[in-house]
Amino acid sequence: MEIVAFGVQADEQPLLARAFEGRHQVRSLDVVLNRDTVPIAHGYEIVSSNVNADLSADVLQTLSAGGTKMIAQRATGFNNIDLEAAADLLMTIGRVAAYSPYAVAEFAWGLALAVNRHLVPAAGRTRHFDFRLDGLMGRDLRGRTAGVMGTGRIGEAFTRIAHGFGMRLLGWDIAENPRCAALGMKYVGKDQLFAEADLVSLHVPLLETTWHLVDASALAAMKDDAILINSSRGGLIDTAALVETLKAGRLTGVGLDVYEEEAGLFNCDRSLDVIRDDILARLMTFPNVLVTSHQAYFTEEAVGQIIETTVTNVQDYLAGRTNENMLVTRGQLPTAPR
Predict the structure, then answer these.
(1) pLDDT digits (tens, 9 = 90+) for 28-42
(2) Catalytic-residue membership of 294
(3) Which intervals hold domain D-isomer specific 2-hydroxyacid dehydrogenase catalytic (predicted)?
């Protein structure tokens, strides 16, 4: 069987082909699956997507009409998929429930360290042989407070690194992680976390209850010199409110690996295009903001695990089996997929 995979990065393509070798052929495409590209999938029973795919009801209907019965998403998040529509179409939807938490946690810390110590402007200066230190003063992290929003596997890995820096630990989640508590983490309400943390890092899924978790009110509660890091989902932050906060001269630094309107932009080359997203364009002008292109997961270990799980999902579908990664199984929708 031939499978078509959308949104495949150049570094990912040989790993994907090798994983399916001897089982199925993979047609790897660098374009993202959406309303414009969905006709390419006509005739493919199995389609693999990435997290920026548009799998809304109309796209799913087009896929189903073209013979697609299974979608294997190479990501943990699934807020881009209309699961009820998929169930009505009797489709099977698989995702990757978990992969290396260290990939994302370490990258989040990379963003935090970069904005705290002004590494990007510093590197830009020295490339032009400007070795002044003006404006590059950072702060020690030891003794400061890290606020970790979401203490699952990734949040726990982030917390362990914060503990290694000697930071005070505050956590917020629907359930306490005893391993984080054992490190000295104190669980508090989100208002207290925003008010007391010197560094806030987001590690929660994007749900109706977490959309714009960091809104104008939360930003106003944060310290003027706080650092904000988001390596989870763009919709967790009200970006328009963040821009207004930065325009007011508040926040020491912001590191974003995700953006709420990233679909069609991130993981693509738009260097020759006119960017019509005024909020993103303004965000990129702040010298204390570092934006990366949803790459926190992009390590050999994590991508390898994502691909291995994708292969398992495809094989289980073909064998009529289900597993913990299945969000919809031949039209059957679990009660509360996460």
Answers:
(1) 999 999 999 999 999
(2) yes
(3) 8-326
